[in-house]
Every structure is written in C-alpha cells, then in structure tokens.
Specification:
It is found in: Cytoplasm; Nucleus. Its main location: cytoplasm. It comes from Oryzias sinensis (Chinese medaka). This is RNA helicase. The chain is an alpha/beta fold. It is 42% helix and 14% strand. The strands form 2 sheets. The chain has a 7-stranded parallel β-sheet with strand order 3-4-2-5-6-1-7. Helix 2 packs across helix 12 and helix 6 packs across helix 7. Bound molecules: adenosine-5'-triphosphate.
C-alpha cells in the first residue's frame, strides 16, 4: 500500500525489492480483496458450539464448573437467565456471584475481560439482594454514560422478567420526576450526576436504605475527576454496611490502589496482564501514509464487511465526521456517534445500530466502553487511542477492541498505522499486553491466506 514513504522504509526487509507491473498489482489487489472477504467472513462464523467448547476450557474466561442452579439463584431469576439463552455461568459469574451473595454481604472489586458477562453478574447480585416487599430503592448502579445505563437497565429488565415485583427506574438526564416524590422502585440505574441529585438535592432516594452500590466501568468512574467526585459523594451518604461492587475489564495500577482505598475489606478478582486480552479477538495492523490512504484501506475492508457490523474509532469528532461523510459519499450506510450529540440522539443511534439498520458505526471514545452489540465482528482503530499527552491509552485500546468478540465470539481488530509515531504507539501497546499484533499486508497474498484460514 505504501509507496515512497516512511511506511515503506519500515517495511523494507519484508517488501520484495522487485517492482511489479501495474497489471500484476491490480491482479494482486483483486485477489487480496477476495481473500480479505474470506478472512472477514470466516471471522463471522460462529456457532454456539464454540461457546460450549470455550466453557469447557479451563484457560477460557468463559470456563465454569458450576451451573446456575449451583449458584443458588432464586427460581424467578433462574427462569430469567435461561430465557436469555444462558446455559452456564462464565468464570466471572461463577466466581463473583458466591462472593456477592454471601452473608454478611462482602465488598468486591472485580476485573474480567470485555464481553465475559460482568453485567449479568452484578445484575443478578442486585436482583438477589432486593426485598420486593419493600417499596423503596435498595440498589444503586452507576454507569459512566447514558447509553450504558440504558443498556444495563435492559439487562435488569430481561433478567427480572419473571420477578415482576422488583421494579427499576432510570436516573438519567431527561427523566424528570415530580419534586417531593419518593421512589418506590427497588433498583435505580443511572449516571453519576443525576444519581447524586436524586440522592441529595431532590431526595427521591433515601441513601441510608441502600444495600448494594455498584460502580460499572469502575476504573473510568474513578479516573475521571467529575465522575469520581460524584460517585464518592454518593458513597459517603450510604450506610457503612452497604455492599460495594466495582467492576471493569481494566484497572490501571493507580486506579486499582485508589479503588482499594475507598472500598473497605474488598474481595478481589484481578487478571494477570497477559490474561487481559482475549485470544478470540485477532489483532492486526495496516500500514498507510495518510488519512486518505487509511480511508482507501478502509474502503477495501468495508467492501468485505457489509454483511457484518463494524465499529470504527477515531481520535476526534472532526475525523469521525469527515470519515462518516467520505463513507456516505461512497454510498455506504454509516451511522455517526460522537460526544457533542445530545444523549438521547446518541442512544437512538446505538439502538438503530443494534437493530442492524446501519452496518457501520463511526465513533470516538465515547462508545469505547461497555456497549454490547453481538453482531460487531470487526473493530477498526482508524486512529490509535492515545491519552492527552500522546501516550498509548492501553485501557481504551482494550475496551475498543472488546466491542467485538463478545462472549466467545470471534472478532477482528484492525489498527491503522500512518506515521512513525503511531507505529511507536502500536509497539508500546503490543509490549504492554505482551501480545503480538500481526501485520496485514494486502500485497502478500500468502500471508492473508494464512490469516484467512
Ligand atoms: N452466562 C452467559 N451465557 C451466555 N451469554 C452470556 C452469559 N453471560 C453474559 N452473556 C452475554 O454475553 C454478552 C457480553 O456480556 P456483558 O455485556 O455482560 O459483558 P461485560 O463483561 O460486561 O463486557 P464489557 O467489559 O465490554 O462491559 C452479552 O450479550 C450477554 O448477554
């Protein structure tokens, strides 16, 4: 793909020195495209067998020796779990649930890979702990974004389908309640600002009656100043014996130690660094020279992935807007989601994408975490994730690629590298996770064929 560029320089040893004729190049490109199609389609192949196989492999995060029955869930919840099509718990569910359901209640800080069922784990804990006869909030669950709060709320609704005495309310922007009212729902799910207002300013919730407090995506809740202030202010209003449950796929060291300081005597489930990435998500990078070349590379791939769903991550809203525009001009059905949109608009875009109305979602980090769309088979990092100082943002990388390969499905993550700097970032990401990210070279048919198989 690269011509007289730095990328070619990087490539020097690998690239054959001989020049090829235009005809050969075109011929190669066509076969590369069809192989790429094959590669991506192969990655879409997924059967429930695959999940069953993984659930029997002790090294898989889906492995479990217990059944849901053995986790001693209420019959109504067992019914809900099976109605959702879950056969066995995953490793995090099997390990965390006994800790969360123990008496007296125990605190927990838990890490488990993306898409391994953390949400179901803490949702089952909340549903198990509420007393349906008490008509007031008993569990609070805080999520970093409006979209995630809605998504988690849906899981509570589905799992609690056969437990209708337990009710849920959303503490999110736009859900206006009458002043002076007291909530009767037992579970409140929301974002930190509204949740805090409902506890302190409006007093819709009596925080002293809360038994379980869940922080989903806990590391970002702690690392983001505003979220941290609000979450800690809520926590301070809760009774001393309130159970605290913190969940995430990533916990940077400093965040981990802070979490341990704010959660008294926690049980801890922590992954080793090398366990953080999922083997079911294959990671590649493509060398390009410019934004335009990345777009070209993307078009090649995009042609092949129209049958699946893909999420494309950009660093800025501007690039995301530009890219969505370019893809639309090419005639593609693309959805754009970025931070400046109204939250309701963002939720609507995700709903359309979830329903498969658009096959490609171009977005920024606002969508990197938690969003669970089963059909996403490819994630493309159009720009690699970096922090405000330009260093690799390893946690965001993991969350972004974790939008594919959900619960044992196979996924493909493709990183676009367009400068020495971004190659350096990619190398540091590889080092951090001690995981090789393979080069995808559309000029090397053998290599693509190998990946395709
Ligand atoms: N025991 C199970 N059996 C089958 N499917 C499950 C099970 N538990 C969860 N799932 C499904 O797996 C998918 C991923 O689960 P979930 O969203 O809870 O993952 P997560 O660990 O919270 O991911 P993330 O770190 O990205 O937030 C969901 O679609 C969920 O319905």
């Amino acid at each position: 793909m690269a011509t007289d560029s730095w990328a070619q320089a990087v490539d020097e040893q690998e690239a054959a020195a001989e020049s090829v004729t235009l005809r050969k190049v075109l011929c190669k490109l066509t076969s590369a495209q069809s192989l790429l199609n094959k590669l991506i389609r192969n990655n879409l192949v997924n059967t429930t067998n695959q999940v069953e196989v993984l659930q029997k492999d002790p090294n898989s995060p889906l492995y479990s020796v217990k059944s849901f029955e053995e986790l001693r869930l209420k019959p109504q919840l067992l019914q809900g779990v099976y109605a959702m099509g879950f056969n066995r718990p995953s490793k995090i569910q099997e390990t965390a649930l006994p800790m969360m359901l123990a008496e007296p209640p125990q605190n927990l800080i838990a890490q488990s890979q993306s898409g391994t069922g953390k949400t179901a784990a803490f949702v089952l804990a909340m549903l198990s702990h509420v007393d349906p006869n008490n008509k007031f909030p008993q569990c609070l669950c805080v999520s970093p974004t409006y979209e995630l709060a809605l998504q988690t709320g849906k899981v509570i609704e589905q799992m609690g389908k056969y437990y209708p005495e337990v009710q849920l309310v959303y503490a999110i922007r736009g859900n206006k309640l009458q002043r002076g009212m007291k909530l009767q729902e037992q579970i409140v799910i929301g974002t930190p600002g509204t949740m805090l207002d409902w506890c302190s300013k409006f007093k819709f919730i009596d925080p002293k009656k809360i038994k379980v407090f869940v922080l989903d995506e806990a590391d970002v809740m702690i690392a983001t100043q505003g979220h941290q202030d609000q979450s800690i202010r809520i926590q301070r209003m809760l009774p001393k014996n309130c159970q605290m449950l913190l969940f995430s796929a990533t916990f940077e060291e400093s965040v981990w130690s802070f979490a341990q300081r704010i959660v008294p005597e926690p049980n801890i489930i922590k992954l080793k660094r090398e366990e953080e990435t999922l083997d079911t998500i294959k990671q590649y990078y493509v060398l390009c020279n410019s934004k335009e070349e990345k777009f070209e590379a993307l078009c090649n791939i995009y042609g092949a992935i129209t049958i699946a769903q893909a999420m494309i991550f950009c660093h800025t809203r501007k690039t995301a807007g530009w890219l969505a525009g370019e893809l639309s001009r090419e005639g593609h059905q693309v959805a754009l989601l970025s931070g400046e949109m109204q939250v309701e608009q963002r939720a609507a875009v995700i709903e359309r994408f979830r329903d498969g109305k658009e096959k490609v979602l171009v977005t920024t980090n606002v969508c990197a975490r938690g969003i669970d769309v089963e059909q996403v088979s490819v994630v493309i990092n159009f720009d690699l994730p970096v922090d405000k100082d330009g260093n690799p943002d390893n946690e965001t990388y993991l969350h972004r690629i974790g939008r594919t390969g959900r619960f044992g499905k196979r996924g493909l993550a493709i990183n676009m590298v367009d400068s020495r700097m971004s190659m350096n970032i990619l190398n540091r990401i590889q080092e951090h996770f001690n995981k090789k990210i393979e080069k995808l070279n559309t000029d090397d048919l053998d290599e693509i064929e190998k990946i395709a198989s």
